[in-house]
């Protein structure tokens, strides 16, 4: 027991592992020193610690949990992907068109939008009809909600020199109509990149400011750690360094750069080389891969084509090269996590991971959107964890299957959507996340969606496969300890010797109505022993 401690936090309920296991959550304290939890106990026992604490934070009757972790975020890519008007709440094409027209009035040379759900186009493919309310010569570019596709105006296509279909090194494509004229719809990164690289860029300082605001926003919803799963922005490390030159990152960040489809051993060697690069709160660790794209864009890898005859192949034109990439990193002790959405893609990744020698390197899979029983068993046998995004299910699909995702899959495969409960009950470690900016990063809404299988605050919406809902303690565990387990590290619980990551809410996620919990206040976050967000009554000694 250290003589003096950095921090003593008092709360009305402290959600220790025994509280998550069903014991009554008692009022208590957590003592923190040197980035670690050094004491946990009941409120009565706090007095002996109080005198030795540099700082005491009394949260009254609030609930203290292990720190929330978002297992899947794109904060730096999100700077560019969230430029312009937020279209994520547009429910009709008309609404989206009007929002863009309003944005155009104050916009510069380019009109930007993001977060658009392709469901606004109904049964037809997304196209530059989106810009019908803008003058035809207007430069406009809108990212779709899944961040895998975009729509460019005719003027933007012209400036980018896009005049028809093009061939790429991966399965990206430029949609064209019957005459071969581009419709404005661009699928996957190589195609969207044809336009993003001619878009005027933000200055480094503008990007740094935007990034701090993104991290700050995450912290204010309770997030203490995030895993960034991309390397699309070459200035990312410089941005982190620039932020840390002036202060701290508001959350701890693990960066797992991407070995892109089609990459070769020389690329993998570079990614292996930068493992361990770090600042104070960020570190490069692990590798992200992608076996397929998305159901919505017809770029997932399914056993049988979707109802439009698409989603038939891996993003890797030669899937054995994906296997070689995973083996390359595994042999060097580098953890991987692979985006796998379609049933064949998930199967291929699970089989690949199953084939690795069991050396304790933790591997994970992302998304797992449509999962047949036999592939679920393969994941169990592979002994890997999964990272899932409950809000992708609740925000982008509908129980009646009238959404694009479900229509493309058909009833049978749509009824295997986001099987969080089945995976958990089979013993697979589940880590929750948002995939921001694909879905909002608010951890309270993610937890509520995991428990409700519909968006928080929308009792009018029919839940999607409600038997896949997670019970509150399981959901909270998956949004805290689940990530730590998925990366093979000890943490994510409130106990002596654990790393000090904490989040406090004004409501208890184990007992509150999930809709009400989604609007609870975040009162405190502690990141590696340091207080980051503090909306409590602070008692300074
Ligand atoms: Zn992602």
UniProtKB/TrEMBL annotation:
Residues 55-531 form the Amidohydrolase domain. It comes from the Bacteria. InterPro entries: Amidohydro_3 (IPR013108), Metal-dep_hydrolase_composite (IPR011059), Metal_Hydrolase (IPR032466). GO terms for molecular function: hydrolase activity, acting on carbon-nitrogen (but not peptide) bonds. Pfam families: Amidohydro_3. Keywords: Hydrolase. Gene3D superfamilies: 3.10.310.70, Metal-dependent hydrolases, Urease, subunit C, domain 1. The keyword Hydrolase applies. The keyword Hydrolase applies. This is Predicted metal-dependent hydrolase with the TIM-barrel fold. It comes from Microbacterium testaceum (strain StLB037). The lineage of its organism: Bacteria, Bacillati, Actinomycetota, Actinomycetes, Micrococcales.
């Amino acid at each position: 027991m250290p003589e003096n401690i950095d921090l003593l936090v008092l709360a009305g309920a402290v959600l220790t592992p025994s509280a998550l296991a069903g014991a009554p959550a008692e009022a208590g304290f957590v003592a923190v020193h040197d980035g670690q939890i050094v004491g946990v106990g009941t409120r009565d026992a706090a007095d002996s610690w109080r005198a030795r604490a540099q700082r005491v934070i009394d949260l009254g009757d609030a609930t203290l949990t292990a720190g929330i972790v978002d297992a899947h975020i794109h904060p730096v890519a999100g700077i560019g992907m969230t430029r312009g008007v937020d279209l994520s709440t547009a429910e009709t094409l008309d609404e989206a068109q009007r929002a863009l027209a309003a944005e155009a009035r104050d916009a510069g040379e380019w009109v930007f939008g993001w977060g658009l759900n392709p469901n606004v186009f109904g049964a037809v493919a997304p196209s530059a009809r989106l810009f019908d309310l803008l003058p035809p010569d207007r430069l406009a570019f809108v990212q779709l909600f899944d961040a895998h596709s975009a729509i460019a105006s005719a003027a933007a296509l012209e400036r980018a020199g896009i005049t028809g279909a093009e061939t790429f090194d991966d399965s990206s494509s430029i949609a064209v109509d019957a005459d071969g004229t581009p419709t404005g719809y661009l699928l996957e990164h190589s195609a969207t990149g044809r336009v993003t690289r001619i878009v005027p860029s933000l200055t480094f300082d503008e990007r740094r400011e935007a990034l701090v605001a993104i991290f700050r926003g995450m912290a204010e919803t309770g997030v203490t750690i995030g895993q960034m799963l991309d390397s699309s922005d070459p200035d990312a490390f410089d941005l982190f360094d620039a932020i840390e030159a002036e202060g701290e990152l508001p959350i701890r960040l693990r960066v797992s750069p991407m070995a892109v489809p089609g990459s070769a051993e020389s690329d993998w060697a570079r990614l292996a080389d930068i493992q361990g690069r770090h600042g104070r709160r960020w570190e490069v660790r692990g590798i992200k891969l992608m076996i397929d794209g998305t159901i919505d864009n017809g770029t997932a890898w399914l056993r049988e084509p979707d109802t439009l005859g698409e989603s038939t192949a891996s993003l890797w034109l030669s899937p054995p090269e994906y296997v070689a990439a995973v083996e390359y990193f595994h042999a060097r002790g580098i953890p991987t996590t692979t985006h796998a959405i379609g049933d064949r893609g998930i199967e291929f990744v699970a089989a690949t991971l199953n084939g690795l020698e069991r050396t304790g390197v933790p591997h994970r899979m992302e998304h797992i959107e449509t999962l047949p029983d036999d592939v679920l068993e393969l994941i169990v046998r592979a002994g890997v964890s999964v990272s899932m995004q409950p809000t992708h299910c609740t925000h982008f699909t509908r129980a009646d299957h009238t959404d694009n995702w479900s229509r493309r899959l058909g009833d049978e495969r749509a009824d295997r959507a986001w099987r969080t409960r089945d995976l958990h009950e089979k013993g697979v470690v589940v880590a929750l996340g948002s995939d921001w900016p694909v879905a909002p990063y608010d951890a309270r809404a993610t937890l509520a969606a995991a428990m409700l299988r519909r968006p928080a605050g929308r009792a009018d919406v029919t839940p999607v496969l409600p038997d896949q809902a997670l019970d509150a303690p399981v959901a909270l565990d998956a949004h805290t300890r689940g990530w730590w387990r998925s990366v093979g590290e000890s943490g994510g619980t409130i106990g002596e010797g654990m790393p000090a990551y904490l989040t406090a809410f004004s409501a208890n996620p184990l007992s509150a109505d999930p809709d009400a919990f989604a609007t609870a206040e975040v009162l405190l976050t502690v990141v590696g022993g340091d207080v980051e967000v503090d909306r409590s009554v602070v008692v300074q000694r």
